[in-house]
């Protein structure tokens, strides 16, 4: 009888394994043009606005692989999109994981003139607006609300 009570007590006090839903991370993202002689760069700052650490694959950072963020360029001269390349290079990301602590901000850059070969030519004639859209997907399957915005890329002086 004593063994039964011991077994019942152990079962009653054992932690119950719950399958928790992945938390939906809250993020903010800011973009700015970074002056450089190397090309047209935008710097993106990603902030974890959640109360929990955010773990995501490095390839899924906005500056990770090409498809981690959606970018469209709109010429103010023609009011048409600056065309992306007709062929894309292959992104083959590694399995690296980045952890962003609560309220921590990390930054990275994207070189737009390599993603959009016609960009430098268009910037010699007109300002261009870069529109971006991003959602973070955590390693555990949580997904943030979509963040989006725009950034004015100023016309360059003809050489």
Keywords:
159 residues, Immunoglobulin-like, 3-stranded antiparallel beta sheet, 3 helices, 8 strands, elongated
Distance between the terminal alpha carbons, to the nearest Å?
A: 93 Å
CATH class: Mainly Beta
Protein structure class: alpha+beta
Order of helices and strands: HEEEEEEHHEE
CATH architecture: Sandwich
Low-pLDDT segments:
5-18
Radius of gyration: 23 Å
Give helix % range: 10-25%
**In order across it, which strands form the biggest sheet?**
1-2-6
β-strand percent reads 25-35%
Tell me about the biggest sheet?
3 strands, antiparallel
Structure characterization notes:
The protein is α+β, with helices and mostly antiparallel strands and 159 residues long. It has one domain (24-153): Immunoglobulin-like (Sandwich), CATH 2.60.40.2970. The protein has helices at residues 2-13, 112-115, 119-123, and strands at residues 27-34, 41-48, 54-57, 70-75, 97-100, 105-111, 128-134, 147-153. It has a three-stranded antiparallel sheet. It has a three-stranded antiparallel sheet with strand order 4-7-8. Strands 3-5 form a two-stranded antiparallel sheet. A hairpin with a 6-residue loop joins strand 1 (27-34) and strand 2. Residues 5-18 have low confidence and may be disordered.
């Amino acid at each position: 009888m004593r063994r039964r009570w011991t077994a019942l007590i152990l079962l009653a006090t054992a932690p119950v394994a719950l399958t928790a839903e992945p938390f939906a991370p809250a993020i903010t993202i800011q973009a700015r043009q970074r002056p450089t002689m190397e090309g047209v760069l935008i710097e993106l700052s990603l902030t974890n606005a959640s109360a929990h650490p955010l773990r995501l694959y490095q390839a899924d950072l906005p500056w990770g692989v090409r498809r981690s963020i959606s970018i469209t360029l709109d010429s103010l001269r023609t009011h048409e999109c600056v065309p992306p390349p007709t062929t894309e290079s292959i992104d083959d990301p590694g399995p690296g994981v980045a952890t962003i602590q609560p309220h921590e901000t990390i930054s990275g850059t994207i070189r737009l003139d390599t993603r959009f070969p016609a960009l430098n030519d268009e910037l010699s004639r007109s300002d261009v607006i870069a529109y971006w859209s991003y959602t973070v997907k955590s390693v555990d399957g949580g997904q943030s609300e979509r963040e989006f915005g725009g950034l004015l890329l100023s016309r360059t002086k003809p050489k």
